[in-house]
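Quick one: sequence plus pyridoxal-5'-phosphate SMILES, need structure tokens.
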Amino acid sequence: MLWSATARLSANPSPLHLPVFNQSITVFGKSKPSRVCCSPSRAMETNDDTSKAKGLSFDDFLSKKPYSPPTWASHLKPIPSHVFSLAHLPTPIHKWNLPNLPQNTEVWLKRDDLSGMQLSGNKVRKLEFLLAEAVAQGADCIITIGGIQSNHCRATAVAAKYLNLDSYLILRTSKLLVDKDPGLTGNLLVERFMGTHIQLISKEEYAKIGSVALTNVLKEQLLKEGRRPYVIPVGGSNSLGTWGYIEAMREIEEQLQIRSNRVKFDDIVVACGSGGTIAGLSLGSWLGALKAKVHAFCVCDDPDYFYDFVQDLIDGLQAGVNARDIVSIINAKGLGYAINTSEELKFVKEVATATVGKLLMG
Ligand SMILES: *Cc1c(COP(=O)(O)O)cnc(C)c1O
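Reply:
Sure thing.
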């Protein structure tokens, strides 16, 4: 996952096309003396800056730690009691040297794609909180649901395996594939190698029954078998998962603070699939020191659906803020998930050629 930063979003239409990169998250900002004020040091890590700069030590990785929120989020409820270190944090932030940017405009990327290989991307940030709760509740297996190549489902299966928990994935696919072996392509290869339990469901049935009912049926079945399942919703996007991105905001604040050459981000641009990422980012940006405007490009459903969804997530934290005040959601569905027009592909190629193609397309 990538992020970037620029001064005036409206000055150049090209950043608006960024969500065509399925693997990108972008932060837009401007280089000027920072107004970022003090933020508390990260309680879940050691207090010394050198170890932070080097990332997780081997004692930290896969350890469960008591969690304390940033001071600006300490009024939220409920506050998770623990967090699991699954991601390699902090992920780097660097300038993205796009050609032809308007004057005084800079684009920066937050490289969450470097959070760890099998768990890479933003999904792991939510799982750090969700799996801590699963373990605290004494779960022995994890259930989650998503599309056939869902990165969230793969990340969940890998994280569960790290913690010696079984995982059960309900994967949505075409009717045709439900009846035959889904094969070993992409994330399925990883999941099947790990011995993940996979159930396939057709898009039609998924739409009819709904993800919550589907996971509940499986949960009941497993309970009857004497298992102790923990259910993670689509994309890991619930109020608890939102903490992953509240924490990401604290991480960015700290990264900006230790820079000698101060940078301030005016805008954050991010893709939105299941809604948890933007809920955490926009709440963290609003409550914390960053105060950058969050622009979310949704790749499914529509903005009204996501305003309501984000509202539910932040209400679940008793934040007392209005979703429409803290995030602007833009429809970026285009032709549909993973379907591109030739213009979009041309744009992707132009940007990839001008910058680091492999990095963007990977
Ligand atoms: C999953 C994903 C998103 C969307 O996150 P949600 O919390 O599901 O909305 C955005 N960007 C990237 C790169 C992702 O992998």
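The radius of gyration is 20 Å. The pocket of pyridoxal-5'-phosphate is lined by residues 1, 23-25, 121-122, 151, 235, 237, 271-277 (CB under 6 Å).
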